[in-house]
Structure formats: C-alpha cells, structure tokens
Amino acid sequence: MNGAESLVRSLLDADVDVCFANPGTSEMHFVAALDKVGGMRCVLGLFEGVVTGAADGYARMAEKPAVTLLHTGPGLANGIANLHNARKAGVPIVNMVGEHASWHIAHDAPLTSDIAGLAAPVSHWLRTCESAANLASDGADAVAAAGGLPGKIATLIVPANTAWESSTGKAQSDPSPTLTDDQGSTPEEIDPANLQRIAEVLNSGESVAIVIGGAALRSDALKSVARIAKARGASLFCETFKSRMERGAGRVPVDAIPYRLQSATTLLEDFEHIVAIGTKPPIAFFAYPDTRSELYSEKAEAHQLASLFQNVPKALDDLEAILDTTDVIAELQPLELPVRCEDGPLTPGSLANVIARLLPEDAIVVDESVTAGREIFAATQGSHTHDWLEVCGGSIGGGLPLATGAAIAAPDRPVFCFEGDGSAMYTVQSLWTQARESLNITTIILANQSYDILKYELENVQASSGEIALSMMDLTRPSLDWVAMSESMGVAARKVATVAELEEALKHAASTQGPFLIEARL
Amino acid sequence: MNGAESLVRSLLDADVDVCFANPGTSEMHFVAALDKVGGMRCVLGLFEGVVTGAADGYARMAEKPAVTLLHTGPGLANGIANLHNARKAGVPIVNMVGEHASWHIAHDAPLTSDIAGLAAPVSHWLRTCESAANLASDGADAVAAAGGLPGKIATLIVPANTAWESSTGKAQSDPSPTLTDDQGSTPEEIDPANLQRIAEVLNSGESVAIVIGGAALRSDALKSVARIAKARGASLFCETFKSRMERGAGRVPVDAIPYRLQSATTLLEDFEHIVAIGTKPPIAFFAYPDTRSELYSEKAEAHQLASLFQNVPKALDDLEAILDTTDVIAELQPLELPVRCEDGPLTPGSLANVIARLLPEDAIVVDESVTAGREIFAATQGSHTHDWLEVCGGSIGGGLPLATGAAIAAPDRPVFCFEGDGSAMYTVQSLWTQARESLNITTIILANQSYDILKYELENVQASSGEIALSMMDLTRPSLDWVAMSESMGVAARKVATVAELEEALKHAASTQGPFLIEARL
C-alpha cells in the first residue's frame, strides 16, 4: 500500500466519502488510489473556487466534511475565497493540497510556492505530511479537526513522495491542532455566570433583541429560541447572512437583520440589550465615515450566550431550564402562499411573489441574489418548508458552488439558486459540474446587468460618482447572455422577462432531469 | 484632497497610468478619485484572476507596472494564482488591496481576513498604509519596489479610512521593503569571480550548453548570447516557459528545452557545463519517483551568469568583453514560412503549419496551449517577427488575461492567444473584458476536450490509471461549446475543424475590429 491509498482508506474510515477535486500532477497517486480503494465519490470542478464552494454546500447539508483535492499553492489559492466563506459560516472542510516531492521544493520549480503561508489565513488546522507512514493518521487528524456542523477548515499539505512511497496504512494519531485562530481557542463550554446574567436580562423587563445565527437557525433550536422570546417578550431576529436556516411552513418565522446600515440600526436602536446566540452581537458589513461598527445602540448592553462554535442546543436547554419555559408553545409559521400577482414585467417584487408560490416542499434555497433578490427572503416566510443557505464571508461567487455541493449531499431534494449576474460570473464554471453530475438544480440569474450593490455603497461611503466610477459597476458593455453561457457548459436555459414566463420556466425546470438555468431580466 | 486622491496622483507621477480593477465597497474612494484626477485608464475584470493576469501581460509589453485594485482578502486571494505566475516571470505589478476602516477590523466582519498573511507568499514588497498622510508616499514606494522589467510584486494594503481621510498629498518616502524573499535579497551586482570562471569554462573547449531566460530573451541580449555561443562553440537553448521572447524573422533562433522530462534530459545529458543566463540551471517541472530534479547530467557543472533579477545586459557585455567577441556576427533567422500543408482535419502539426504561415508582422503571441499546441513554437521560428509570452509559474489560467493586458499595452499590435480548453476555463471571464475594451485579440482554443497533460503525467509519476482517474481528465461530459461561451460574453466566435476553415477564420479575424475566438477541434 502506498501513502495515497492509506489516506483514502483513512478518510473513508472517518466517513468522508465525497471528494471535490481539480487534481494536477502532484495529486495523481491520490486519484489513482481512488480507483484502487473504491467508495469515494469524486466530483470534478473546472476551477478550484467551484471545488471549495461545493465542499461548503455539501457539508452544510451532509453535516460532515467532504475532502477537496487541490493542486499545489496556486490551486489552493484559487479556492481560498470560498474557504474564507466556509470558515465564516462555521462549515467543516478537509483540504488535501498536493505539493512537490520533498527534495524538489528547494529547486524553486515554477509551481513551488509557500503553500502553508497561503493556507494559514483560512485554516483552523494546518499540517504538512512528513512521511508516507504518517499520511493515514494525518488524514484522520484532519477529519477530526474539521469536525461536524458547525466545524472548521483543516488543511493537509501532501508532498507527492509521501503519496507514492509505501505505508503500512496505520500510524499513531496526533490530533493536536498545528494552528488555531481566536475562534479555535474559544472554550466550547458555556460560562455559567454568563448564562445566569443573560437569564437576568431576560427577566428584567428591559427590552431585549435576541439575534440568532449558526446552529440556532435549525428547526429545534429555533423552537427553543422562540419559547424563550415569547416567554419574556423579547424580539427575535436572525443574522443577515445565514449558513443554513430551516424555515417556511411548520417552522419558526424569524425576520432577518437588514443588510442596509440605516435599516438595521433603525430596527435595533431602541433595544436595551442584545443577546446573540450562535453568532456575535450584530455589526455592520462595512465601516463608513463617522459611523460605529455596532448595529445596536451605544447605550445597549451586548451579550453572547454561545458563539458559532459553541454548543448552541445545550446553551438553549440550560437557558430554558433557568427560565422555565416548559409550558410555552412556540408559534409556528402556517403555510401562507401569497396571492398571485398580476402578470407583467418581472420586478424584484413580482419575482419574489412567483418564487414564494412555486417553491416546492423540502427545497434547498441558495441565495446570492445580492440586491435584486432581497425581497425573496421575506416573501418565502410562509412558503413550503425549505432550507435557506447564504454566503457568510462576503466574498461573491459562493452561490453556484454552494448549490452544486448541496445537490450532491441531498440528491432527492430540489435545489434553487438565486444569483446576481455579477456574483455568478465569479464561479460560472460550476454549471459544467452541475451538468456532468446531472444535479437537480434550478439556477435563477437575476440579471440587473450591474454591480448594483456598489452604487448603494458608493453613496454610503460618501464618495462621489463620476463616469469612471459608474462604469466600474456597469455590466452592459457587452451584456452577458446567460442562456448562451449556460448552454455552452451543457446546462439547458431559458430567458424570461414576465411573471408568466418565469412561472412557465419554473414548471419546465421541475419537469426535467438535471440542472436548468433561468435568466430573469428585471 | 483625501488619501485616495493623493494615491492616484502619486501613481500617475510615477508613470503608472493603467489600473486593472474589480473594486468593492472598500475601494470606492479610490475609484471616485480616478474621476477627480483623470489620466488613469481603468479596466474592469469580472474576476480577480483576470485583473492580476492582465496586469502581468500589460507589464511584459509596457515594461512598467500597472496597478491592480482588489477588494479585501478574498479579492486578493482570487488574484493570487496569476500573481504567482507574474512573480515567477519577474514581472512588476503594484497591487492595491482595500481593507476595512482600521477600527472595523477587530469586529471580525464577514469580509475581515488576514490580508497581509495572504499577500506575503506572492509579494516581494508588502505594506499596510497607516494613515491618509502616508498614502501618497506608500504608493510611490510600491511603484519603486515593483521596478521595471524584470520587476517585482509590490502589495499595498489600504484601509478604507486612509482613502477617505484627508491628506496634504505629499509625504516622506520610505522605500525600504517591508518583506523580501530569497530573490529579493540576491545582489544585483554580477560577481566578477563568477564572470571570470564562466569565461574560463567557455574557453576550456569542454562542451557547454547556454540556457537563457528572462531579459536574455530580448532581441539585443539574444544577439550577444548568440555571439558568445558562436565564438566558443557552445549550444544555446532557452528555458521551457518564457516570460517574453523576441523571435521570428530577423531575430536569433533558439530552441527551447522541452517540457517532457525524457526529452529534456536526453537533450542535455552530454554537456559538461550548463551556463544559465537570466534564469537558473534547468530543473524539472515536477519531481518523479527515482529521478533527480536537475535536467542536466550529474557529472555536469552548473553555472549562473545572472539571475532573473540581475542586470543581464551588463553581464553579457562584461562576458563579451572578456571573450572578445567583437568580430563575431550573430546568425539571424531569415523569413522562412513553411509550405502550405494539405487541407484536411486539424492536427497539432497542421494547426502549427497554418499559424506559422499566417502570423502577421509584429504580432504578440500568448501561448498557453499546453499539450495540443506544443508544435507551434518550433514551427514559428521562421515566421514574421513577433513576441512570445508564456505562463511562467505553472498555474493554468494565465493565458487569456495575459493576452488581455498585452493588448492594452500595445494597442497597435495584433495579439494571438493559443489556449488549451482546460486552462481557458480558469479565467474565461477575460473574454468579457476583451469585448468591453474592443481589444485586438484572436483567441484560438485548442479544444482536445481533456486535461491531456495529466494523462502524460499519470504515466510519468508511475500511477495506475483506472476509471476514476481517467474521468478526472475528461472534459467531454458535457463537452464545452466555445462558440456559445465566447458569444455569451460578447466576443464573436467560430468553430473550425480543417486547415482551410482555420485559414479562413484567421483571415476573418484579421479583417474585423475587436476580439475574435476560434474553437479549433483537433
């Protein structure tokens, strides 16, 4: 057995059985080992941003990590933006990055680079394999470090010779992390004094906004939070960008903190306390001249019951025990489909109306629609039960890969991906993987032909908007033809401009096998 | 004046007048300043790999850096692979990376990341601006650190508040680099003892292979090298991947060291000395089991007259003075267009034949054709005078952006880009920028529908090739439709499968304004 085969066996033993890959020469022995061992599904992406973003989407739905296979430093670098997004979302990923054979590194070949240096800023755990004999245990340690959901980014650098040299297949495990960040060193235990203080705050009669994220957005935790809020008259909001939220009919309805600074601060300004659960007390996405970073009042007191990486269900159980909420019944959202809007040109509002009505039971929604789709979230509150996934690290280009990975993890559920045209272009190669794997994904491109978000931000940062500035936000010269783009990668597509056309296209997509793309002209 | 405006003025004063950009909120004041100041051409890329790769191509032809505008850590990360390629090619680039306002960083907003950590592995010079008052001088220092051609990667991190806060526009310059790598600390001076030793080697009558790269591939340096080789009977080769080589009719003809390991070692095995000029003694692209990294014999002695970053023309002058080559006349390549091959299906050979005949005078060629285009280089030895640019860091996806930047730098020269389908997919968004800027680029996709190079490498690393391994190199499920892909981004395109069709398509491309893409089915 060589090192590569021992690593594949070790990953399979740890229940990691999906590999998102764009391999190169240094990873050929790992790829060859996949044929020898069997049992690992290997999904090819034509760009590494697809690979890492799909691993993110997969882990959010599978609640366990996939392994990525990346070709040396530049291959890793291409995947960093979506690793950043996954890291901020608390999603586990195991990266396997190929490196030159150890003796080749000093020669500074074209592909030689500081892989560990590139990996460190996005990795909670990072190790370079030192010999073929260690590769099995290094793989097991990486999976252990990545954990479940919420989880962490574990990166294993594998010099090519450790993959091709021989191994016994077993070695002593050393699970100690090589690198930790601030969140990695956060104690998993909930501080009892803090718990007590938050209970006091909730009992005080002062106004409280509970802000939830991470694991607090799952169905059972939501019920618990809703009981607490109802019992003590607290207001309940979820964070702006959500890793995975279970919502729709039969779930707890929660409004999100708006992205727009003024709306967010207005919403929160009167609360005397902010209690964050599974997230941090809310802060602005960007800083602006003469504004503070916190979205809540200077006079408010901010609390955190549990961080993204702490045990949120246990923290909620403990808090409910103190507050004695056993008799409280959480109010659940009934199925409330909106009345069909009039036919006519698609607008953000009419598009949201169509989606809210036609979203099927048990759908997975990936939302990276940025400005043009901002009405969809509120509109789908009473739609059929669904999961809602967003990009949590602010790096555009997460959406199409997230949908790709989610569909691999949950092949029996329909996946809908709402994408801005600007962000879709970042990882557009995802469509090819969706076609190759015949994934059940309907992508809706909200084609406003603009980096519209930047027009808002330009004003927000109090910068003037001249001709050059506006041209940097303009995607009309030339305009992108999303139907041709999609079909060029094997995904059937259709352009729609009215309510009726969108309805018809969604019905067509639902009736066909494999991916479909709808270009919605707004 | 605010910091951003002072930075724009400082860059323009330093003769940096092209900005490749994908800005976000943190960079809005810089973009606004471009309107206020005037004189900076700002070119939008829809993905940062386009932005950094275009800056590389621009600097190779303009012989001075462009500035890139990148949005925080993830924006930089998306551009790292092509910064890696530029770094290996010795190409100057000034990166301006936006960061949150200084007081916002500690709040760990979604886009907060360790930007300096990400930048360090690809930057020779790296600094975070500390106040608006410093921004003008920080910009000047970055340009100075980047230098000309050959040059370096200088990265300036700009917190948003230093862009919007006010500045006097001038500040004390501090050109000391914040970070240097091994090559950065290489003395620029040529060691006289080393020079003398190399002269002795050339005079010894022992067999010598001169291997040239970097600045030794420019027309005058080539003549100097050719005189030295001719005077002392040395063999002359250029490195496998060339940053910018001036060649064709009227230039010095030089064969390249082949990519394939066996071919390269066979070529070099009998030489007693290797003299590298503007590059290192040649090493293998990858290491393989039981092979050494050096491409030359264990018994050979390796020398380096000048590194990539040393003064190659001066080193050659000094060596010529010692060897007294004043009476030697370098043999120049006559115009030798091949006889037209028979019409028929396109093969690597017939494609190279067409290109060699039809390449126009003064063209710029960007070659990232990987396997299918490997015959083009030799075939175009006697073609009309042209510049030849390749990706030097082994990270695929450099070609389309290089062509984009080269066309911006040299608008009056026709640019030809030979691309493999696998590598073209990495930065396919380049086509949109080519259309938007109406650049005179003809892209020829050598569509073999495969990561063909990996099939060779799989064998080379002695790995077995099972079903999964081969499927990871297969781009036929679905096959990419390059005409639809290109047209979706506004670049007219045509598919060709025969010699006559390719000839016709090239003539059509030459007769039209703006970019054109040819999908060559092999």
TrEMBL record, chains A, B:
Pfam families: TPP_enzyme_C, TPP_enzyme_N
Catalytic activity, EC: 2.2.1.6
This protein's record includes keyword Aminoacyl-tRNA synthetase: no
Thiamine pyrophosphate enzyme TPP-binding domain: residues covered: 391-519
Residue ranges annotated for the Thiamine pyrophosphate enzyme N-terminal TPP-binding domain, each copy included: 1-108
Keyword annotations from UniProtKB, A to Z: Thiamine pyrophosphate, Transferase
EC class of the enzyme, as a word: transferase
Protein name from the UniProt record: Acetolactate synthase large subunit IlvX
Any one of the GO BP annotations: small molecule metabolic process
Region of interest (Disordered), ranges: 165-189
NCBIfam families hit by this protein: PRK07586.1
UniProt xrefs under InterPro entries: DHS-like_NAD/FAD-binding_dom, THDP-binding, Thiamin_PyroP_enz_TPP-bd_dom, TPP_enz, TPP_enzyme_TPP-bd
